[in-house]
Task: structure prediction
Amino acid sequence: MSGLYLSSLSLSHFRSHKASRLTLDARPVAIHGPNGAGKTNLIEAVSLLSPGRGLRRVGAAEMARRPEALGWKVTCILHSLHQVHEIEIWSDEGAARQTRIDGKMAAQTTLGRIARLLWLVPSMDRLWIEGTEGRRRFLDRMTMSFMPDHAEATLAYEKSMRERNRLLKDQVRDGHWYVALERQMAESGLAIHRNRLTALARLTEAQQGAATAFPVAELELVTTEAPMPESVADFREALSESRFRDLAAGRTLIGPHRADLHGLYAAKGVPARDCSTGEQKALLVSLILANARALAEDFGAPPILLLDEVAAHLDAARRAALYDEIVALGAQAWMTGTGAELFSELGDSAQHVEVTEDDALSRVSVEKG
Result:
């Protein structure tokens, strides 16, 4: 079968899982069990198939099972379109995370070329009412799903900006120290901005072209200071002209790191930040589904979806609508919830997994059906 899904997942000394193994097919994965049993730890392991620090955004050392802290390993078989890959991701006793694909060492960014993952976790429920950093991160993850090289542009920009900020904090006024850094920032920063706009346009198109039970979100990328320059040369000039002001602030005040994502509940004309908790959740689900539909066209298969406690703030009708859309899309969606009844509408359309805890160990069983 072509598509994008995991047919096996093994965890060794990963958080609460001392040794867990799942054998799967391409259907959605409905995971249920009590709070603290280790459900989210399962999907966190899957999230490591995407470049970055995973859905909890922590370092490799924090993923190790306690109290042993011996290191950990995640192994899976990934079916990506018409290819099958064996992927190993591990950390040895506090060391940096490492990746091996088909027996060969690989950079994390390589994962972005063979897999596409999207996730929605409870901490994102407050996306529209908290700080801009979370919204930028949300936008960049969606952008990276379309353009894996976006991760490299982001890393290059952040590295150059950190070095420039260090000069600013040290009150270095000699312009020669800034020229090369500002050139790198201009090149990668403009790429980030253009990639984000491309992703937003793709999301808008995917939302408009779908009949769905979830509300359409109108999205706008805004800057908190000056508008983004239109060329690398203009960006370099803007950074140069901003040095005096940046020296006073001790940090860089212009660039894509100052952008914000604004959302609007289109049918009501209400800013996302002013919507109810349920409406805000529905807008997020709508965007994830639109992202998935667009990727199904662009990549050739829908992404793997990681939906932690997805039923929270969704009524029964919207929950059923979500499941219908996931099944119609053909995505292997990993969903967690406290009770099996939350996934009853899926029936045999999904594979059902129970996670329990016994003496601080997570135990996983795939239910027959």
Q: What stands out?
A: Residues 109 and 269 are 38 Å apart (CA to CA). The first helix runs from residue 39 to 47.
